[in-house]
């Protein structure tokens, strides 16, 4: 798993992002995950590319803050991974 943080994003949120997104791996929902946090005006955007059983899942969300954006993208990836898994 790799998380990158762009200019203007509070680096303090990296630990939270790692914990939340790592939970997807622990739950067996994804095999590999890359996430990028960036500022999009006043909002924080999180873009995720995840691999599950050789299939690539991409998700992107924007929230009023990094924690909201991470929570939203985690939910989206979990839902997509669940749909792929059957």
Structural features, described:
With 86 residues, the chain is of the alpha+beta class. The chain contains 2 helices and 4 strands, in the order βαβββα. Strands 1-2-3-4 form a 4-stranded mixed beta sheet, with helices on one face. A hairpin with a 2-residue loop joins strand 3 and strand 4. The model has no long low-confidence stretch (mean pLDDT 88).
SSE diagram, text form:
Layout: E1 2-5, H1 14-26, E2 32-40, E3 43-52, E4 55-63, H2 66-85
Parallel strand pairs: 1-2
Antiparallel strand pairs: 2-3, 3-4
Helix pairs in contact: 1-2
Instruction: Estimate the helix proportion, in percent.
Output: 25-40%
Gyration radius over CA: 12 Å
Q: What's the count of strands?
A: 4
List segments where confidence is low: pLDDT < 50 over at least 5 consecutive residues.
none
Strand % is 35-45%
Order of helices and strands: EHEEEH
Structural class, from secondary structure content? alpha+beta
Mean pLDDT: 88
């Amino acid at each position: 798993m790799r998380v990158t943080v762009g200019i203007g994003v509070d680096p303090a949120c990296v630990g939270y992002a790692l914990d939340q997104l790592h939970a997807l791996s622990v739950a067996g929902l994804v095999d590999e995950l890359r996430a990028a946090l960036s500022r999009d005006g006043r909002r924080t955007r999180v873009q995720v590319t995840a691999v599950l059983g050789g299939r690539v899942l991409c998700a992107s969300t924007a929230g009023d803050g990094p924690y909201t954006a991470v929570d939203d993208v985690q939910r989206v990836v979990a839902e997509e991974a669940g749909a792929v898994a059957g």
